[in-house]
Amino acid sequence: MCRYISAINAILRKAGLISALPLFCSPFFYSPFFYSHSYADSPVPPVSQQLKDPKAADVTVVGHVLEPRQLPVEKGLLGIALHWGFEMNVFAKDLVNPRMMAVAEGGTVYVTRRSVGDVLMLQDQNGDGVADVQKVVARRPDMHGITIDGKTMYLVTVNSVYRTTIQTDGTLAPLEQLVDDLPDAGQHPNRTLAVGPDGMLYVSVGSTCNACAESNPESATILQMKPDGSSRTIFASGLRNTIGFAFKPQTGELYGMDHGIDWLGDNEQYEELNHIVKGKQYGWPYVYGASHFNPQDEPPGNITMKEWAARSEEPVGYYTPHAAPMQMLFYTGKQFPEEYQGDAFVAMRGSWNRKPPSGYEITRIRFSGGKPASFEVFAQGFLMHLDDKWVHQGRLAGLAQTKDGALLVSDDTNGVIYRIAYTQNGRQGWPVGEPTNSAGTQIKVIQRLGVPPEQKTPVLAIDVLSAPQTLSVTSPAFSDGAPLPDIFAADGENISPPLQWQTGPKGTKSYAIVMEDPDASENPPFVHWLIYNIPGNVTQIEKAVPPAPQVPRPKDALQGENDRGNIGYFGPKPPPDDPAHHYHFQVFAVDKKLNIPFGASREELLNALKGHVLASGKITATYDR
């Protein structure tokens, strides 16, 4: 019966309709399961909060199938947000399906193409940052993982590991098959591999399912073997799908990003950063996150969930659920500023089952004192919310560091590899998606928590800038002093609310909006939104202003940088244990168009506004998580 229910559900799901499956039917779904209009509209808490006794669990899960529409990039990207000093260009295009990458000592770049079943050699012979040689150098069906150790290259398909030698001209010697019996594929067929500092070969084998008891003990593991494929052992287990893993150069420690379980909800399970140690178990499929119980299954035998959790290692970091982490690397180049040394980068391919979508970006993992300290978005803009619809212009897969220290990222959907270089004057825009992408205990997003007692109460922008007249500011979405609807929160859809204001006094040439939270932790207040040079004949802003440097509506308006380090709006996300925070939307009528570029800071904007504000007003909303 379950087979027929599953078939019916697949049809309904593809059509975007409501689906429901009994718990016993499939490892992919839970009962009752349904697609709702918005997670934010539902009072249902995350599974981990509902679940007290797994044997008596009656769990409700709210999730979505939301696949952002692909935008063509033939005429170039709309723009990507990068950190100050960085620029991006197309390194290679028309590649069909570029996935994992590796760079040889001489600078030749190699990329696997899973759908084509081969390895491409890319060379930038004139040093202009663009590949001028593309050549197929190896062929095998489902080619995916790649790593290089000196002149030796290792490749992995679903079941096989190969070894070859890089020849003088960059081509490869015939492939030598080392292993031919890796576990069969299932839900996660994309194997990756790396050579450790001990000279051993490490291969990641994903699970065959979303959450189930595997029949092959090598599934959902990282395997260790000698360079010739012999002496194969399970290095670590309970890893659902750790495509991206890398050894920290300074210490040799192994870190990996594991894909979380699907269908536990839009906001669960977080993608996990694990410190992977030999012989350790990492929870899947029975336990996830901070020892949370998966309501679907129970451990084998008489082992309890609590006992399984005690035997499992908890993550050292958490990232937005369903962001789909792919290739990971530690930066060892000299081109980027010194602060990037020892930090890691991860390509986030992007979700298909979350509302709002997550991922579609490059993330930096900052390390401090040798330990992971925070996540930080390094490049975004591949995901956009345009005209009330989610769209993307790239799904990222592979990362590599070039010989000159630039960063390469592959887009396996548009067939492009981009090169990000530090030029000291690069400044690009159009950040979209979720500016904040982590939560947890041992690794936290950079945020401002708690005003020290010795500090004064944060002063709002409206209190800094004197104005001879007052503007009336309203919103069709909330009343002054009322709670801000969840849709506008960071954990909702993270879109900006609509605002309206009365016409400014005579001489008004533009308007500026500053959204601040004085209940956050530092002085000045936490900045959530800066938008300025709104034309003087405009007296309203629609909801969901795209986080673009220059927005399409109202035309010519520019956006500044919020305190999450991104351009555009960032919705409320106060600490869960805090009382409601107050969010002040302040509108300023200005006697000129400000001569500052996009991406301005609060200080830059306020300095530009001083002496030019004709009138000001505000509306305040509250938000409590």
General description of the model:
- By secondary structure, the chain is mostly beta strands.
- The protein folds into three domains: 2-63, no CATH class; 69-422, 6 Propeller (Neuraminidase), CATH 2.120.10; 461-623, PEBP-like (Phosphatidylethanolamine-binding Protein, Alpha-Beta Complex), CATH 3.90.280.10.
- The chain contains five helices and 41 strands.
- The strands form eleven sheets. A six-stranded mixed β-sheet has the order 33-41-40-36-37-39, with helices on one face.
- It is globular, with a radius of gyration of 25 Å.
- Residues 1-42 and 427-456 have low confidence and may be disordered.
Write a short abstract of this structure:
With 625 residues, the protein is mainly beta. It is 6% helix and 33% strand.
Features:
single chain, 625 residues, mainly beta, Neuraminidase, Phosphatidylethanolamine-binding Protein, five-stranded antiparallel β-sheet, 33% strand, globular, disordered N terminus
